[in-house]
Design brief:
heterodimer; A: 191 residues; mainly alpha; B: mainly alpha; 3 helices; flat
């Protein structure tokens, strides 16, 4: 009986190395998020008041933009498997645009916060906000660079481009989604 | 495959809007539970549908499920 290579423990989609990185990143962000939840539980009132100073509408739109980019990326992998390289590369381009949209919206939010004096030294909540969202912002930027190079490689090599490379790069991109899906409720809604 | 990706995407958008809407009624434990559960559900949807973990070895599936469960449970304990 033959088994799919991805059913092997050593071959998750994208390969084992990218998944080790993904889980290490999730654990790192997870520890920081649990730290924020713990300290927030010690002083709910203060964290609640600080949380209200964040722009929830912008964050909700940003979540939808990031999910849309993830959807484009997942479709790009699907079309690559179908050997529809043109559609796959077009979807990777839309992934990049949506990722840039996320960064721009987040930067607008940062600009508003800095203008209101809500910097890292304002309170423990905002120190966590800047560190967590700042590191996430950098991850999205790195993800955009990765998707850009994946697309360039795809256009150059067409059908001979590596599926594992594409899956690994796109898995990194989805990891940014995963982290944001936990950061969004914790920072903007739960306190 | 494409249809299930699209369905997952629509569910993710609906859950995001729901999470953002229910926060207006914050202050009750039920809303906090609902927010955390919907957020963890979205986390699983991206992991299993977009990242195709549904086609991976059980080991990788269990790791993601455990991660989401642990984070969600600790949030409920600390903030509930």
């Amino acid at each position: 009986m033959s088994t799919s290579p991805t059913k092997s423990i050593a071959y998750p989609p994208g390969g084992v190395l990218i998944w080790i990185i993904i889980y290490l990143e999730l654990i790192t962000f997870g520890m920081a998020m649990l730290g924020l939840a713990y300290y927030g539980s010690q002083d709910r009132e203060l964290y609640h008041l600080d949380s209200l100073k964040l722009n929830r509408v912008l964050a909700t739109i940003n979540t939808m933009v990031l999910l849309t980019s993830g959807y484009f990326a997942a479709r790009a992998v699907h079309y690559f498997k179908q050997k529809d390289i043109d559609r796959s590369s077009k979807l990777l381009l839309w992934t990049i645009f949506a990722g840039l949209g996320f960064l721009v919206l987040k930067s607008i939010e940062y600009y508003q916060k800095l203008g209101a004096g809500l910097d890292m030294n304002y309170s423990p909540f905002f120190m966590n906000y800047w560190l967590l969202t700042g590191f996430h912002w950098i991850h999205v930027l790195v993800g955009i660079v990765i998707v850009y190079f994946l697309r360039r490689n795809l256009i150059k090599k067409r059908e001979t481009a590596s599926l594992e490379d594409l899956e690994a790069g796109i898995s990194f991109w989805h990891m940014c989604d995963l982290i944001w899906l936990l950061l969004f409720p914790l920072l903007y809604l739960l306190f | 495959m494409l249809q299930s990706l699209s369905n997952s995407y629509y569910v993710l958008l609906i859950l995001t809007l729901l999470v953002a809407t229910v926060f207006k009624f914050q202050g009750t434990v039920v809303i906090l539970f609902a927010t955390i559960i919907m957020s963890v559900l979205k986390f699983y949807l991206v992991g299993f549908q977009f990242m195709e973990l549904n086609q991976a070895h059980t080991f990788w599936k269990v790791l993601l499920i455990v991660y989401g469960f642990v984070i969600g449970s600790i949030w409920i304990i600390l903030l509930g």
